[in-house]
Each structure stands twice: as structure tokens, then as C-alpha cells.
Amino acid sequence: MTAGGALLARLKAVGVDYIFANSGTDFPPVIEGLAEAQARDLPLPHALVMPHEAAAMGMAHGYYLATGRAQAVMAHTNVGLANCAIGAINAAAEQVPVLLFSGRTPTTEAGRLGSRTVPIGWGQEMRDQHALVREASKWDYELRFPEQVPQIVDRAHAIAHSTPPGPVYVSLPRETLCESIAYPALSAPPSAAPAKACADPAALDEAARLIASAERPLIVAQRGCGSQEGFAALARIAERWAIPVVQYWAIQLAIAADHPMSAGVDPSPYIEEADLILAIDCLSPWSPAAHRPSENARILHLGRDPLYQRFPVRHFPSHLSIVSEVDAGLLALEKALAPLREEADRRVETRRPRIESRVRKTRESVLAAARAGAGDPPTKEHVSLCLGEALRGREAAVFSELGCPLAPLALTRPDSWYQEPHSGGLGWAFPAALGFQLARRERLVVATMGDGSYIFSNPAACHQIAEALELPVLILVLNNSEWGAVRQSVLGLYPDGYASKANTMPLTSLAPTPDFTRIAQASRAWTALVETGEALPAVLTEAIAHVETERTHALVEIRVRP
User: Fold this and answer.
1) In angstroms, how far is CA 470 from the centroid of its own chain?
2) 150 and 17 share one domain
3) Helix (H) or strand (E) holding 53
4) Secondary structure element (H or E) that encloses residue 396, with its range
5) What is the Cα–Cα distance from 238 to 51, expressed in whole angstroms?
6) Helix pair angle (459-468, 53-67), 10° resolution
7) pLDDT of 254-312, one tens digit each?
8) What predicted TM-score, i.e. pTM, was given to this entire model?
9) Contact 432, 62 (CB under 8 A)
10) Could you give the number of structural domains in the chain?
């Protein structure tokens, strides 16, 4: 069998369901391998045509969020890999495993099957193609011999899933993929198992002792709890010990909005008074420019990489760092805390009414502000409030990229919220939602994004994928005709500067924006344009009904305030 065919068959054996591929002139042995493996009746991953590599990376990201299993992305030499780079950066920042492959321009100019045949064979050669994604990869390698295929796939898969998980990259020279040898055991179980971290029992005992003795503890969670079991464990810890949980710039949901200790998204009311802070899987648990923990506060970090070692500058104090899969760590911490609860009863019950009152007031304030934003046009917060009402009683997953904010949504499920990666590679939400929908066909999946993020997503490509694969995602484009995040950043640094007084702030306007509904209509999507807060609830209801009954994707463009 050719190495190209063996590669595909081995990916299926290690658990890859899909190959998100954008093919090129380096793909003949891969395409031949697909046909060859099918002719030999070998089980293969589904190979899906991706019109753009950024969509391929986003879909692999979203599929992992839905399943916990890394998928494969295949791109065309250096140019396709360059389009994958932003997705690789996003995956690395969020510890999402992806098996990334791209062809390598043939080394030989003639004389071998697979040698260069067209001018791009010279134009696409690089001295170090791997450098395009090496900093975002846990491990990279160039396939050199056809007999390496099973071992390299197994190693790539195991490293990608090892704690902390992340993307890996393998380049595939065309000559190597064209070679044929005997592969006796392509369907054998993987030969390498991922390495998973387990929390140090002594560190857990120390963390439990510190939490139990704290007068004003605080939990900050950013990337969820790892699983349904971890989500439930954190809810029990927070309730039993009366500890407020703040979700600052939350990438995934860690606690239900209606939990009595769910303290919102702003750590400001809690962080300066806290004598202990437990940061759960937080890249940036607070902003040093805005928040100042007490010098006497004990600060604990729990996560798969609590010190986030791949980031050169990150100095949040960590008096105790616990390396663990998040859900396993929370369950073990709950167990370590249990025998200490009776002794801490006075401290816990003394602070409980104060925290519950503060949580209620925070929630009431958030909802009041969202309701007050029901103008013409409405605020993003009001859109979020209306979306939350429309989703009530449904099992939905919301992907937000500078779109609907979390606080007014009132979500309660652990797999209901996914925010754009902290790496800031825009264009993520739309394809990630498609990947999630591919894995969870029964779920209502909503992608909300700003107009700039929608443009970055290569929307024509994403709409084509949604139609071709019959993925009924609901897309909400919150259009304020500007780079809103950039404008807010400028105002944060120069609140009284010249830019703040300008009629149009330089380098922030996106006006005039296209008619986004027409872009979606080109792929037969259901569409609507909303310009008033009053019209929004009915349109959302109609859009959701279409998605759920007709099972095709829909786009609602919502004009919002700058």
C-alpha cells in the first residue's frame, strides 16, 4: 500500500473521525490513498473538502470541544499551512489537540514518482516550512520513510492528547507518500498512550487546608471544569463552602448562572478583599492593571498547566501550583475538603448570607442594564438577554466571538458556552460552531460574532460548508460597523485623548459594512435583518424554529450600538 493510503487508515485506527482537508498539487498520493483504501475495504476517517484552511482548523477545534477527541487537518504545502497558522495559535493557547498535516514540496526535480512537475514545486519550497507553526506546536516532524507511518501517527496522537493537550504538526513529502510497502497491522490498537497528569495528594491536602481556613476565599474559573462531573464538583464545593465563583473572560462555563455562588464575570468586588484565591485553569485570572489582590492573600492555581509555561511573560503569583486534569483535580479537592467542613462551619455560614446577597445584586444589575439596552439599535447586552430567553428550555451551545456577552445569557449547562480564544485569532466562532454541530447533530448550536469577526471567518467558505454538510447552525452577526474592541482599548489607555474626541476614531471604522444577509443567501441560508430591539425576540424565535424544523442554517444580522 502507498504511504498515503496507510496514513489515512492509521488515523482511523487511533480514533480520528474526520480529516478536514484543503487539497493541492501535493495531494495526489493522499487522494489515491483514499481511493486505494476504499477499494481494499479499509475503514477510513471521513475526508471533508474545506474551501479554506482557517475553516478546517476552526472545525477541528469545535469538534474537539464536542467530543474530547483530536481530529486531523490536511493542508497544501507551505501556503495552506500558512492559512492554518492562526488556527494553530488558537488551539495552542486553549490546549486543544489537533493533528495538523501539510504536504511538503517535492525535494527531487526528476527521477522519482512524486518529483516536481509544475512551477509551484519550486515556488513553494522553504528552508524551514515547520517554522510557520512550530511555536504553536507541541511536537513536529517530517515523514521521511513510508515504514514510519504507523509509529508517527501513533506518536502524534499520543503527544497531542497528553497533558496539557495541544496541536502537533507533521509535514508529508510527496515522494514519501507515493512509496508503496507492506503494512501488516494498520488497524492494530495505538502503540502509544497519552500521558495524563494526576494531582499530588500532598498538594491537594495543603490546598484543602488553606481553603478551609480562609475567611474570604474566592474562586476564579476561566476554561470550565473539564467535564460534567467536574462542573458538578465545583458547584458542590462552591455551595458547601460558600465561595463565590467569578468567570473572568470565560472561555467555557464553569458554574451555572443561577447557582447561589455564581458571582458574575467581574472580579473587582471580591479580589481585593480575598485572603485566598483559587484560580482554576486561568491564563489570566485577573488584570494586573485593574485588580490588586491583597499582598497577604494565598493564591492557588489548578489546571493542566497551571503556570502556562509556553507563555514567556506571565507573572501571577502561585503559592501552590496543582498540575491535574481539571475535572479530576476538582473531584479530588472536594474529597480532601470533606473532613474539614465541620470545623470550618462558623466561617462558612458567617459569610454565606453576605455573598448570596452580593451575587443577587450583581445579577439584578446585569439584567437591568441589559433590559435598558432595548433601544434602536439595541446594545449587545440586550441581544444577549433576548437570546437567553429564546434558548430557555433548550439544550443549546453558544459560540461567541465579540458577539453576545456571557453575563445576561443565564446559561446553566457545562457545554453551553464557548468564547473566542485568548490568543485573539479572529474568525474562530463560525467554523468552530460548524465543527461542534458536526459532532452533535441533535444540538441547537448558535454562533454569535461581531461584524469584524464574521468578515474574518471567510464567511463565503463557512456558509458553503454549512450548506454542503447540512449543518443547521444559527449565526448572529452583531453589527456595529467598527472594530469595537480596538476602540475600547484606545479609550482605556487614552480616555481623554484626541482619538476619544474625534468624530471617527482612526483605524476602527468598518463602515460601510456589506449586507451580510446576502452573503448567507448565496448559500441558501434563511436570513433576517434586525434594526430595533422591539423586533428582535420575534425574529430570534422564527430563526430558531427554522433551524430546528427545516434543518438548514440561518443568519440574523443585528444592528447594535457602537
Assistant:
1) 22
2) yes
3) helix 53-67
4) strand 396-401
5) 45
6) 60
7) 999 999 999 999 999 899 999 999 999 999 999 999 999 999 999 999 999 999 999 99
8) 0.96
9) yes
10) 3
